[in-house]
Structure formats: structure tokens, C-alpha cells
Amino acid sequence: xxxxxxxxxxxxxxxxxxxxxxxxxxxxxxxxxxxxxxxxxxxxxxxxxxxxxxxxxxxxxxxxxxxxxxxxxxxxxxxxxxxxxxxxxxxxxxxxxxxxxxxxxxxxxxxxxxxxxxxxxxxxxxxxxxxxxxxxxxxxxxxxxxxxxxxxxxxxxxxxxxxxxxxxxxxxxxxxxxxxxxxxxxxxxxxxxxxxxxxxxxxxxxxx
Length: 208
Fold this sequence. Notes:
Layout: H1 10-23, H2 25-28, E1 33-36, E2 48-51, E3 56-61, H3 72-77, H4 80-90, E4 94-100, H5 105-116, H6 120-126, H7 131-142, H8 146-154, E5 156-160, H9 163-177, H10 182-196, E6 200-202
Parallel strand pairs: 3-4, 4-5
Antiparallel strand pairs: 1-2, 1-6, 2-3
Helix pairs in contact: 1-9, 9-10
């Protein structure tokens, strides 16, 4: 997948921008290290893992879906729900992050209700007629009890961000730390990503 370079596919460009955003965390102290697992290879499940003070944060980027919104069924078919469940089961210090240009409305509805009613029984009682099927679908996808599915909701983050906004955000953060054209800086970081491929970057190191 590296034969054409990071920028050879639109989806890879989106992944590279998100990774660049997280790499800045090595400079400002938000992250201790980042290990690049893969860029653009869906079979691997995760693009990279960010080590923070108290947890490991696994990131998966999928630029978009044909339906323009990620339903629970679509996330299940894409392997996201199962991959996240498997990773979270390894340790309570694991967290998973999903990023896309498309919305994740069903999951977000459940997470918003979960934050408002953290006790499981109260959460389930508070679900609307629209939300009950979403909750049932999530448990079915995970083949898990309500308690386990609630833990999954609590430890997963879903971000919907347009390519334009992501590009502007990365350019703004780079401008704070570097002098010069942000586009050239992003290009240098992408080149570094291609050179290092499956390696680890740490906050105490300087690679670019």
C-alpha cells in the first residue's frame, strides 16, 4: 500500500492528516509515543496507537461510507465494533477512537444518553423508542451483555470531521510550533511516515 505514497489515495490523505494531528501531541506533551501500525490497510484494523499517561489509545480512520452515515450495522460489517471490542478486552487501560468525514449518529445518540444516565438500569429506561433498537443492535454486534456494551460505549470515541476542517486544524497547530508553509511541513511529515512505516515515535525524539 506504500508503493504509491501516502498521498496516492484520498482516504490515505485523510488518515495522514489525522495522524499528523496526533503527532503534534508528541511536541506539546499530550502523547508519550505513537506507533504506526498501518496506513490504509483495512485488514489490520487500526492505523496507529497513541500512548498517553494512563492509557493506550487505538485509532481507526475510515474516510467515508456509501450511505453518508455510519449505522451500527455498517460499523459492524466494517469490523469496527468487533475490532474495538477485542482491543478493549485486553486491558481496562485501552481506549479506541474512530474518525470519519461521515457521521456516526446512532452510536452518538447512545453515548449522549449514556453520559446523562451512567447507571445501566436508568440508561436503558431512558432510551427512546428510536434508540432501543440501536442499543439492541450494538449488544448483538458485540455478542455481549448490557453491562459490557455500556463499557464499550464509555471507552470508545467517535469523531466526525470534514477534510477541510481537519486540514485547517492541522495547519493551525503546525503554525504554532513551526515556521514556514504548513503544506510543506505536512509534506515532510508524510515523507517521514513513509520512511518509518511501522516504527514508533516518542515525545523525547525528533524525527522531522
